[in-house]
Amino acid sequence: MSNFSSLESQLFGCVELNDTVDVIMMSQAPSTVEDLFFQDRVPSTFVRYLLFIYFPIGLLLFLIRLCIGVHVFLIACLLRKTTALRRIVLRIMCSILGIVVVERGKRDERAHVLCANHVSAIDHLAVDLCNPCILPSVWDIPNIIRWCFGYMDLGASRGRQELIRESRKHIKQSNSLPLLTFPEGEITSGERALLKFNPWPCEVSDLIQPVSIHIYRPVFNVNPSAFGSSWWADCFWFMALPFSIITVTFLNVVEKEEQEPYNEYCDRVSQKIAESLGISVSNFTNQDVTEVTKRRDRDRMQRQAHAAAQSVQRVSEKMDHRRLDELTMRIKQFNPQISLFAIKKDLQKTRSTQATLENIKSGKLQKAAEAEDQGHGKITMDPSQWRDVYEERKWSMVEANRAQYLKRLTS
Amino acid sequence: MAGYALKRLMTEYKELTTRPPEGIIAAPIDDENFFEWECLITGPDDTCFANGVFPARITFPQDYPLSPPKMRFTCELFHPNIYQDGRVCISILHSPGDDPTGYESSSERWSPVQSIEKILLSVVSMLAEPNDESPANVNAAKMWREDRAQFEKIADNTVRKSLALPLAEN
């Protein structure tokens, strides 16, 4: 524990630095939702190279810490949540796991609800180490982990009203643990701006203690989260990197004024956290984030599908070109009334003799006679069009010679 | 080198597209590889190959037009100057240096002033007038000389095949 003070002083220096940086950034409000997140986990090429060298050590460290982590889990489960022993033991073990928690400010026992900004998947663990608390499981987290960390199901899945009712009931119980909430609802970078808070914690209690959380990683300043990253990836980085310093700052309690609407009360709470981090509060809600995530996933999937389709098409075009020509000719043999060009085009689309024959049967394909006035289309100066010109000419050439041959035969 | 070849092929492609010679068309197989072409040749009128539309591949070397391209029919073509695998044996496709048959004069050989169009026109006239002095297909040459009727019958079936027509009965 003795090394905490030195770490802390180191950290303070950094926080001050961050503050100045953030003040500059505050002047330009985030214009898109994406600005609130780290887009890439690795911030610079330099760190990338550094990580490359560090990788074997990191992996080894991760594996060792994984084994230790199991024990931490066991201890966390065995010891009662309120005991001081648990806190000290867990804090040391978390330091071994690379999670160093630094506490600032004073916890005010009057407030039963804590509101914090969300910067990583283990925020609640950090706060829990400073001050035991309960996290209502608003998010979809595996049951086993919920059990291990002593989360409480306050009926979030049954709707907002139920959650508020259950939470109120919980904090009314004497000597109950305070409720930790992340009203942002999404993990953000905590460096540009906060998401607009969901006001539900403000409806639970009139006394809220805001908590600001900041993560700093010396040397390997890999971002604790990245937009759309999964919680287990975040955890991996926590355990693979030498260590991460999480500063948990308990801020002064915000009291709801009489007649003050929940929204304004909530805004005051979020403003307080933002101030402490030296950033602003944005107007984006976590619904906006969900929208953006969805759009991003959709775009990515479309791009992938498109690229895959294109490469498949390119390969098959090269390979099938002659085969398709052969098939075209064969189909023509049994369906002389259909134009070759139409058959080839349809085959390129269907890629199946059967399907094209079906199309011919149902009369979808152009007749040879109708196609005659085509095929001598304009020639553009654009070379990419020439291939199509060739294709048209090719089939009309076969068609014309075929007609001539048959004419010669009958005359 | 390849850059010049590409430029030259592009020029020829444009020429062949905008002013195609009668009964001949040619184009690269795909836009990414200009060194592999497909072409169609119509059998010359008043011959046993008349109205046949014969597909062939032309492969260009990287130092085209210094070296001649190679040409190969992709359909079966029973002809004295076409190998059984479809390769075309014609003097314009041979560099002045090599002479597999020893019957060709230098003037008919490949030189950079030749072009795809000239090659294809030569092939058309080759179809009309087989050169049985330097046969690539000995059987075809023999039949051409000795059993013209049978040769024409085979040729007619090739034409029918190229036009997606049912084969004539024997």
- Identify the quaternary structure here: heterodimer
- As a percent range, the share of strand residues of chain B is 15-25%
Elements of chain B, N to C (H/E): HEEEEHHH
- Order of strands in the sheet with the most strands of chain B? 1-2-3-4
Largest sheet of chain A: 6 strands, mixed
The helix/strand series of chain A, from N terminus to C terminus, equals HHHEEHHHEEHEHEEHEHHHHH
Based on CA inertia axes, which overall geometry of chain B fits?
globular
Low-confidence stretches of chain B: none
How many structural domains of chain B? 1
**Which fold does the CATH topology of chain B refer to?**
Ubiquitin Conjugating Enzyme
Mean pLDDT of chain B: 85
Strand content of chain A: 5-15%
- Per DSSP E runs of 2 or more residues, the count of β-strands of chain B stands at 4
Helical residue percent band of chain A:
55-70%
Give a written overview of the molecule.
The complex is a heterodimer of chains A (411) and B (170). Chain A has 411 residues and is of the alpha/beta class. Chain A folds into two domains: 14-133 and 177-284, no CATH class; 297-410, no CATH class. Chain A has helices at residues 3-26, 45-78, 84-96, 123-130, 143-149, 160-172, 200-204, 231-240, 262-277, 286-334, 340-350, 353-361, 368-371, 383-410, and strands at residues 99-105, 113-116, 179-181, 193-194, 207-216, 244-250, 254-255, 280-281. In chain A, strands 1, 2, 3, 5, 6 and 7 form a six-stranded mixed β-sheet that branches. In chain A, strands 4-8 form a two-stranded parallel sheet. In chain A, helix 2 (45-78) crosses helix 8 (231-240) and helix 11 (340-350) crosses helix 12. The N and C termini of chain A lie far apart (108 Å). The relative contact order of chain A is 0.11. Chain B is of the alpha+beta class. Chain B is 32% helix and 16% strand. Chain B has four helices and four strands. Chain B has a four-stranded antiparallel β-sheet, covered by helices on one side. In chain B, helix 3 packs across helix 4 (148-162). The N and C termini of chain B lie far apart (52 Å). The relative contact order of chain B is 0.16. The chains are: A alpha/beta (411), B alpha+beta (170). The interface between A and B is medium-sized, with 29 and 30 residues.
